[in-house]
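Revision sheet: structure tokens.
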Amino acid sequence: MRKCPYCDFNSHELRGELAEIAYINALIADLELELPRIWGRSVNSIFMGGGTPSLFNANSIDRLLSSLRARLTFAPNIEITLEANPGTMEQNRFAEFHAAEINRLSIGVQSFQDTQLEHLGRIHNGKDAIRAVEAAHRAGFENFNLDLMFALPGQSEQLAKDDLQTAIDLSPSHISYYQLTIEPNTLFHKRPPALPNDELAWAMQCGGQAQLAGAGYTQYEISAYADAGKQCRHNLNYWQFGDYLGIGAGAHDKITDMAHQTITRCWKVKHPDVYIENAATEQRIAGTRILSQDDTTLEFMLNALRLTSGFNRDLFQQHTGLPLSGIETAMQEAESKAWLIRNEEHIQPTEEGQRFHNDLVTLFLPT
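Predicted:
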């Protein structure tokens, strides 16, 4: 495996044998130390991501889930997602993952066009991607996501449309359709490829939105489209500023302590070998930060305004512990720019507000 040139997530090239048993042991040891932070809570979703967890065999995934069930209270309709690449080795395991009670896949297709995949540094081709989706159907997955990018190097509006149509024809329940952006600390940032200009990228986005709507997918977030009832519950929790626990190398979490009226972010050491060595100790923690009121407000708005439906006013106070009156001036300015609409119960970004999401969120920066 190798790291893609556009990826800024915590991932590492696999060299030598995969330390599968040791890593599962480390995850369980990490969880044991984290349990006091979440006593009494039920788990509504699990997301296995950050690299390629589908490289693990189904027995390891089953062992991990069994360990989680023994220590946590699972909601009756829990969503359990596994990220997977379209490579042949992973797709051959889809049926086994389904048997291990994974009930949702997120397949990192990115494109079905071989030239685009080469530009992106992907190791699969378009046929591999199609076969992977067909394998997901055969394995019994009724709920799975396809990750698809647009505004790729050398991509035309027609090629973007063709790519999206291929995805739609494969009948996923969810499509994440998002623009390739150049992130710091990536190979593309050091050696930027030639990308479509802003006007062409916007045409691709608008065309894709219309194409997805015509196929029956509802847009519920800036880059997320789903069949009815198939929105990703795990990501909805992020966007609604809910709490989540992170275990694993480089994992992040956000936990609210109602008794002390604090919201704490915590992140684990990044390198898998260092994580495995320290997972049963406090050295597994790379850092912690208690959010200030300004941080809390900004992070809530950054996430919640990604949702096309916005949020109920009560959710802001419920998840931040702060009154909405503290951001009244910023909301008035957003309204004056036609980026936000609101009533007595609800606050919602406009279509223009979502297009200029970064600018909208900037209004909520502390002065």
